[in-house]
Amino acid sequence: RIGWMYWGYKDWTDVPGGAGDGGLFDDDDDNRTLRDAKLDVLSEPYPMAVAGTPETYGYDPDTRTFTLNYTPDPAIAAPTLVFTAPRQYPGGYRVEIDGGRIVSADGAAVLVVQALPGAATVRVSLQAATL
């Protein structure tokens, strides 16, 4: 339950130690040169806000499965928000939920979850949609 960040910076190749590979682009002056593999690692589903206590959550890039288990707090009126990382689910995603209901639109980039009254635990799972 610790946040993280990635510093994207312009990596000067003409300074000592400058390898030229620190940024998200091959050419920092040209947005068309995005390093897709690097962005794939940095863009993954995560809980943006949890209406309760997060117990476990994580993303498995091999199976492209995100899971979140939390204990809802009935004193919190706001819903739980999960960034679905559309980059990881270009064909859409499917949701499995127990103890809650989805109140966002199908395929939304931010999944909005409302705990069911009396639920002791809410479990949310995202996986790539099957075609």
Descriptive overview:
- By secondary structure, the chain is mainly beta.
- 5% of the residues lie in helices and 36% in strands.
- It contains one helix and eight strands; from the N terminus they run αββββββββ.
- It has one helix at 36-42; strands spanning 46-49, 52-60, 65-72, 80-83, 93-98, 100-102, 110-115, 122-128.
- The strands form two sheets. A four-stranded antiparallel beta sheet has the order 1-4-7-6, with no helix packed on it. Strands 2-3-8-5 form a four-stranded antiparallel beta sheet, with no helix packed on it.
- The longest helix has 7 residues, at 36-42.
- It is elongated, with a radius of gyration of 18 Å.
- The protein starts with 35 loop residues before the first helix and ends with a strand.
- The mean pLDDT is 87.
Q: So how many helices?
A: 1
- Based on DSSP secondary structure assignment, what is the total number of beta strands? 8
Oligomer: single chain
Succession of helices and strands: HEEEEEEEE
Assign an overall shape.
elongated
**Biggest sheet: strand arrangement:** 1-4-7-6
Largest sheet: 4 strands, antiparallel
Ranges with pLDDT <50 over ≥5 residues? none
Query: Beta fraction of the residues?
Result: 35-45%
Give a summary of the structure in a few sentences:
This protein is mainly beta.
Topology diagram in text:
Elements: H1 36-42, E1 46-49, E2 52-60, E3 65-72, E4 80-83, E5 93-98, E6 100-102, E7 110-115, E8 122-128
Antiparallel strand pairs: 1-4, 2-3, 3-8, 4-7, 5-8, 6-7
